[in-house]
Specification:
Layout lengths: L3 H16 L4 E4 H5 L12 E4 L11
Antiparallel strand pairs: 1-2
Length: 59
């Protein structure tokens, strides 16, 4: 299961994506933890649909 620091990073990234109205989805182990027995992870997988216009939101 993700620790507090990893969840804080996920919350901040998704907050920025939502604010910029950029489509995304959380995938991988962190997403699977909501549907099955949680397991220890050390990464966060996010698929983001960026246009050229959106790239500046993360600089």
């Amino acid at each position: 299961m993700a620790d507090a620091e990893e969840l804080a990073v996920l919350k901040e990234v998704t907050r920025r994506l939502n604010r910029a109205k950029i489509p995304y989805m959380v995938t991988g182990s962190i997403a699977a933890n909501f549907y099955t027995v949680p397991r220890m992870i050390r990464d966060i997988d996010i698929v983001v649909e960026l246009s050229e216009r959106d790239i500046g939101c993360f600089s």
